[in-house]
Amino acid sequence: MRKQIPIYFVLVSGIVMIIQYFVPSQLSDDLFTYANDWVIVIGIFALALGIWSLLKAEFRKLRDPKEIFYAGVLLVGYFVMFFSGLKRGNLEYGSFFMTIFNNILVPIQATLFSLLAFYIASAAYRAFRARTVLATILLLTAFIIMLRLIPLGGFSSVNQTAVSWILSVPNMAAKRAITMGVGLGAIATCIKIILGIERTYLGHD
Amino acid sequence: MIFWEKMMNLDRRWIYLCIAIVVIIPAIKTFKVPVATTPEVKKVYDFIEEMKPGEYFYLGIDYDPSNLAELDPMTYSILNQAFSKDLKIVIACLSQFGVGMAETRLAEVGGKYGKKSGIDYCFLGYRPYPAICILTMGVDFRVTFPLDYYGVSLDSLPIMQGIKNLMDVKGVVDITGGNIADFWITYGNGRFGYPVALGLTGVMSADYYQYLQSGQIFGLIPGIKGAAEYEKLSGFETSGLRSIPYQTLSHAVILLFIIISNIGYFATRRRMAK
Amino acid sequence: MTTIELIWYTVGVLLTLCVFSFLIKDNPFYKFAERLVAGVAAGYWTMLVFHTNFRDKVILTMQNGQWAYIIPILLGIGMWMRFSKKRSWISRYSIAFYIGISTGVSVPVYMYTAIFKQMSATIVPFDTVTSVLVIIGVLCSLFYFFFSKAHTGAFGMASRIGIYTLMVGFGAGFGLTVMGRVALLVQRVIYMKDYVLALIGS
């Protein structure tokens, strides 16, 4: 029963929400509004799960002499933000809370991802070779796209036209085919979930 | 041949050093690079430019600090353009770290034009489950956000009088680096049919030309080049146009790397075949 | 720029350099910055969610007399039972509510957005060379992904055209990805350049 009732609920609610899309009535609209509003409320509670998992793992690491320093750094960062954000007004620009956000979180997160520029240059050098016909097509297309940021005099307008054509014709066709395939897969997965064929969301006993 | 073999096995830290030197050069001696505007960016610019003072649009600031390089210039330009035209903006963030970025940008740009929260713009804050939020905002903003980011009831805000849901704004401009763009197209435009324009990172933008062609989005600002084009159109220059000389040199060097590695590959392949 | 702002800017630049040090090799400065950002991000998120979500959407709506909200609140508390070995089955009801509603809502809109709208945009208008090329590109790319039939003969040729089209798409994606990734680095360089200028200026 512990698994059956949720499966039946998914079946009924899934079918009701599909039918609701096609029924233009006030009751249908109210059902839509309340159902989605309640999902948001559940989601707010679910957000706490991630924080709890993180804190539990870090407090456990405090017992390990090798991890104690870095676990301490994480927890200090967490509690500084926690206590500085206790008052609602501290969420506004100019507060200590937002100063830490802008001067610690933003620079570090932005820099972590900026390392990718080096990795992509390294990947371009070490792996991007015209080994096959397909790799050559990929390479040439990327070459034309990357040339558009380099001023080439009279050739620039030709390159811009080529880039515009590549993005709006073959690239668009390829991505559309992928979207349609992914869309069909997503619909199939949703229907499998509604019908109870796909039950991985229930977890294990 | 030994030279090419050594080049093929070059330590990646030499490549990192080359890139580091190349991006520092324009910081010391900058130069101008012409930026050609594209129709998809112009459509977003025209959408805001053709709005009259007092008209509303929705701005989604749905990105994290990891994407701020490409998306922040777009936010700055759009906010500057909108505030200079006295447009009313409803802003929300469906990405958790977007809130801090949005609050900072609104304070900086809004402060420059003397714009006040609740009167000239309404900053709604953050909610989880972007898809569901887009659906409920299409019904009523107050269902998703009963209060704004500052804890004030939407009903008491002058800007929100007469504005019930996303159908009451002229359109949606969403600036995002994640799958929230898909949700706006699927649930926003797909379910409710309101006009959507997107500002996206370079990585994502190639995937969205299909939606531009199908009319599901009316405009697209693709990556840092799109941001630079928007700055050129709007006249509000921030880091978008400033980035282009750096981009030019970096791209030139990366293209050179590709050429060198392919020459080396063919040279060593011929030798190994012998 | 005030002295306090410059001090905080210095902190940001130093942390930026800590992260960049990873390019040489993994080191304690990088690990410090990595763990610090994880803690700060988690703390930021906790307070944001508490004030703007939990307080505004849950506590205040109950205080305003919307007693129907007790149902999603109980379901939300049920989500927390996930961590209990004995009572984790309660969380299934909460998950089932979310999954049932969101999948039901998704099916018709995905059908419209990803299938019908894309199909109609491929076929209409059918009046230029470009539109013919688009139809050929889309069909051949779809043929490539159909693995229930061997890719031989005319079908094989169509799937070959499909993979060439897909490679052009991936090449375009790669070119734009390079621009995107380089932009991330460039912004950091501009950030540090502005810091040096602010330092000189002060």
How would you describe this structure to a colleague?
The complex is a heterotrimer of chains A (205), B (274) and C (202). The relative contact order of chain A is 0.06. Chain A has helices at 4-22, 26-61, 68-84, 96-126, 133-147, 155-168, 170-194. Chain A is mostly helical. Chain A has a domain at 1-65. In chain A, helix 2 (26-61) packs across helix 3 and helix 5 (133-147) crosses helix 6. Chain B is α/β, with parallel strands linked by helices and 274 residues long. Chain B has a single domain, classed as 3-Layer(aba) Sandwich (Rossmann fold), CATH 3.40.50. Chain B has twelve helices and six strands. In chain B, helix 4 (68-84) packs parallel to helix 11 (223-234) and helix 6 runs parallel beside helix 8. The longest helix of chain B is centred in the last third of the chain and has 35 residues, at 239-273. The model of chain B has no long low-confidence stretch (mean pLDDT 93). Chain C is mainly α. Chain C has helices at 3-20, 28-63, 70-80, 90-123, 129-144, 153-201. Chain C starts with a helix and ends with a helix. Classes of the chains: A mainly alpha (205), B alpha/beta (274), C mainly alpha (202). The interface between B and C is large, with 57 and 47 residues.
Strand pairing plus helix content of chain C: what structural class? mainly alpha
Number of helices of chain A: 7
Form type of chain A: extended
- The total count of strands of chain C amounts to 0
Written as H for each helix and E for each strand, in order along the chain, the element string of chain C is: HHHHHH
Give unreliable regions of chain A as ranges: none
Total number of beta strands of chain A:
0
Uncertain segments of chain C of ≥5 residues (pLDDT<50)?
A: none
**Share of residues in strands of chain C:** under 5%
Quaternary class: heterotrimer
**First CA to last CA of chain C: what distance?**
8 Å
The biggest beta sheet of chain A, please?
A: none
Mean pLDDT of chain C: 93
